[in-house]
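We modelled the chain as a single entity of 162 amino acids. Its sequence is:
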Amino acid sequence: MNEMAVAVAIFCGIIGVQYAIRLQRQLRMKRLWQRAGAALQAGNFEDAEATLRQCVDSAPLALPVRTALANVLMRLGRMEEAETQFKAVASLQPRQAEGHLQLGYFYVTQLPGREAEAIAAFAAALEHAPQLRTHYQNDPRLDPLRGLPGFQSLLSAPAERR
């Protein structure tokens, strides 16, 4: 064999191994995700939490997994840990509204007294999805924020705020 053929064979072998490793990780993640779902359906939040933590360890950038973990932690009353996960979701995709929106709802519905942080999260979401302004105006979950100047500022159209 010439050197080029050997190099190609080695390269193909490396790619094959990398593919096999990635496939194995994906299959493991799928099994863990299914196990977490089964635990949630059974109402076993402690098992769901443990399994979702394994998922986060395997795929730290998987936002649905972090969101599910945050919601489980919230159900378990572990608000500080839930907040950490919601913040991670927002920071991993800072230019997407969804993570900021979830964080804002977490603050307003679960942590009374954190209105300023809720408004900041809703403002960040609005920056990336201006159509949320109408949603904010009509969502009854946001009633605790309606009288606050910072939230009123979000509800006004951009031209009105100048």
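As a brief sanity check on the tokenised model: The chain has a mean pLDDT of 87. The radius of gyration is 22 Å.
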